Amino acid sequence: MTRKTNKKASKKVRILQVIAVIVVLIACGGALLYNMSMSAADPDDTEIRPFTVGEGDTYRTLGPRLKEEGFIRSETAYRLFIKNNAPDTPLYTGKYPLSPSMDLREIVDTIASGETYYPDAFFLTFPEGKNMRYIASEIAENTDNTEEDVYALLSDTEYLDRLLEEYWFLTDDIKDPRAYYSLEGYLFPDTYEFKGPEMTVEEIFGMMLDRTGEILEPYRDAIRNSPYTLHQIMTMASIVELEAGNANDRAGVAGVFYNRLRDGWALGSDVTTYYAIKVEVYERDLYMWEIEDVNAYNTRPDAMAGQFPVGPICNPGAESIYAALFPSSHDYYYFVSDKNGNTYFAEDYDYFEEIIYSLQEQGLWYEYE
Q1: Residue 234: what pLDDT?
Q2: Distances from the Cα of 52 to the Cα of 79, 80, 197, 318, 320, angstroms
Q3: 3-class DSSP state for residue 52?
Q4: Are 91 and 59 within 8 A, CB to CB?
Q5: Phi, psi dihedral angles at 333 (to 5 degrees)
Q6: Are 156 and 199 in contact (CB under 8 A)?
């Protein structure tokens, strides 16, 4: 009896050992299969492609599309991973940069980061001294918006009221009914990255206004202590931007205009007259009736003595804003620049004419074609 019992026991042990081996093999095989499913769908395909997460998507619902678009090996492995390693961050809509060479964890981490990317992104430069008509044209040419979309937003009082609450440097002056374009002067000229042609005008303006805030922030105290309002300072900066041209002394040019204002002169700036008639600066000669026409922008008539235009006439760069904030102190009322950018100042008109004659004689006078 003892031998039979021992034989039966030994047989049971062997069966259990075999079963254990099988279980171990199955477990190892399953682990190997799972790890393979977790690995990159195609380690050799490193191309970054956009994967779109839309409204209503959840981490669980992304599996089929990730598999269909070739980013993961196994939808089942993805579901198991999400079940056991559900990200604790919200899922944001947008396009995410994924590659078949990324493993499952990298793919989930990328989506969970919320850092979308824009495969249709491009850079667009707005040069210093350009006005709102130029900006509207560039937006229409490079995005899905029209010029009418730009002008409609500039006239939207509810939108402007929201901006007044959001940006410390904007005041009710931008809503003056005499102004041609409400945000003229406040869209900082720079190179901007556009997410794509689908960007809205509001998004574009927000990007540019944010940059203006960055430029003006270091000068808050200077602005607060200035005898002029920020709107007047930005208006002066826009005039300096166009009048100074290639001048090497913008602060000196600003000083000339402030001297004229201080002594009750009209600013006498031709560039304001061009803006008033909506003709680009130096596109053509001005007619006398245009020079003498009383307009909220035109600073040539005596009726504008001691006054700023109603608002900026272009979007000035940082150098002109600085010059308008910190003008040179001097007794000059006239200035002229030669073709090399050197600036000459005069206290009276007779000496001003002498400077021009001397520059012409030296071949340094800038001739417009």
Answers
A1: 98
A2: 18, 22, 17, 39, 43
A3: strand
A4: yes
A5: -125, -5
A6: no
Q: How many other C-beta atoms are found inside a 10 Å radius of the C-beta of residue 147?
A: 16
The average pLDDT across 108-133 equals 91
How far are the Cα atoms of 52, 98, 110, 113, 275 from residue 106, in angstroms, in the given order? 16, 9, 6, 10, 55
Helix (H) or strand (E) run with residue 149 in it: helix 147-154
313 contacts 184 by C-beta, under 8 angstroms? yes
Helix (H, G, I), strand (E, B) or coil at 337: strand
C-alpha to C-alpha distance for 276 and 279, rounded to whole angstroms:
8
Q: What is the pLDDT of residue 365?
A: 78
Residue 37: pLDDT band with limits 50, 70, 90: low
The burial of 336, by beta-carbon neighbours within 10 Å (0-12 exposed, 13-18 middle, 19 or more buried), is given as middle
**DSSP-assigned states of every residue in 189-257:** -SEEEES-TT--HHHHHHHHHHHHHHHHGGGHHHHHHSSS-HHHHHHHHHHHHHHHTT-S-HHHHHHHH
φ and ψ of 367, to 5 deg: -105, 125
Residue 34 CA to residue 241 CA, distance in Å, equals 65
> For residues 90 and 57, what is the distance between their CA atoms, to the nearest angstrom?
11
Residue 19 has what DSSP assignment? H
Bridge partners, 50 (sequence order):
97
d(CA 206, CA 193): 13
Beta partners for 191?
A: 125
Alpha carbons 292 and 299: distance in angstroms, whole number:
9
Domains of the chain: 49-113 (3.30.1490), 122-217 (no CATH), 227-361 (no CATH)
Q: Which two tokens stand for residue 47?
A: 């191309």
**Residue 340: Cβ within 10 Å count:** 9
Taking the CA atoms of the chain, what radius of gyration do you get in angstroms? 34
The 3-state DSSP class for residue 96 equals strand
